[in-house]
Amino acid sequence: MKLNLNIQPLSSWMNVTHQPLVISGPCSAETEEQLLATARLLKATGKVSVLRAGIWKPRTRPGEFEGIGSIGLEWLNKAKAETGLPIAVEVANAKHVKEALAAGVDILWIGARSTVNPFTVQEIADALEGHDVPVMVKNPINPDLSLWIGALERINRAGITKLAAIHRGFSSFEKTAFRNQPMWDLAISLKTLLPQLPILNDPSHICGSRELIPFIAQKALDLDMQGLMIEAHIDPSVAWTDAAQQVTPAALSEMIDGFVLRKAESKNPDFVDKLAVMREKIDQIDDQIFQKLGERMKIVEQIGEYKRDNDVTILQVSRWDEILQKRTAYGSVLKLEKDFTEKVLELIHSESIRKQTAIMNATKAELG
Ligand code: PEP
Ligand code: MN
Questions:
Q1: What Pfam families does the record tag this protein with (predicted)?
Q2: Residue 13: DSSP 8-state
Q3: Mean pLDDT of successive 10-residue segments in the chain (368 residues)?
Q4: Residue range of the domain that includes 86
Q5: Same-domain pairing of 19 and 124
Q6: 8 A C-beta contact, residue 199 and residue 167
Q7: Whose CA is nearest to atom 3 of ligand 1?
Q8: For ligand 1, what atom is nearest to the CA of residue 168?
Q9: What is the DSSP code (8-state) at residue 314?
Q10: What total of structural domains would you count in the chain?
């Protein structure tokens, strides 16, 4: 299924001065000096295309720094006048949109805490009506693809065609090395449903700590995302928000130099031929996998009927344990990750149980 949104290509509204596209700047504008000093150094790297800064900060707890407010727009404009960099801010309500547009902000973005709320997104969309400004929509805090798509649709329906998504990871109960789980498959699903939508990655908010950022950023580039939003601060150690994840402009520059830019396609005819041969092999193997899965399910059905006729429960835990153990051991010999083998087996097993449950229940209905 493809969704029908009227979206302009990124190149028609974003002047990418250096590949990959990098949007950078502090998490929050704190003081005029901090913002200007950061902006100057970012500009000097020659690798940053847009300056970002949060001036209205939705914080998890009241009492934390909630942003410097409207005065930050003046500082951003000074930074823009001095560096020539277009400026981007987060907006979270109609008043923010009005002020940002009046101040000549070049790009607006909607934060993760706003995308979760359709009322908020609609309020922002209504305020955008009649304005031709680029808008980037961060994914919602929770891993809900429809909510993300819904927000993009609301903004698009307000007439915004210079639209992009930002993948900033998802909150999860489970504590891991990441501040927000990347859950790449959600970003990939969005790309599949809306191939024309530019998707940028925000490794800063995924990682939560600066050491991890280069790995996530590289992975995003390898998944063909169209740019990166990375937080940078003149002195991250004293940053008022998100201190652990901000990098200095110098560190950002070094990080960008380390990125490997791979192409989505190669013009080399030899490469294209070899790729076609390998893809053909993959197609054949996939066909075999599904054929075998079909055969397996037929036997599962036979077993279901046999269990039904002998009044035996569907699930025998000892048998399931045995399957798990044997197959994961075999999988590891074949160099398959244990976690992967287990997930595949669980999927197959739950489908088998579903089929056998249907067989058992059909009998009850017949008897009844
Ligand atoms: C931010 O960009 O500083 C921010 C608040 O991000 P998010 O909405 O992704 O949490
Ligand atoms: Mn931040």
A1: CM_2 (PF01817), DAHP_synth_1 (PF00793)
A2: T
A3: 90 96 98 98 98 92 91 98 98 98 98 98 98 98 98 98 98 91 96 96 98 97 97 98 97 98 87 90 94 94 92 86 94 95 95 92 63
A4: 10-258
A5: yes
A6: yes
A7: 27
A8: 9
A9: S
A10: 2
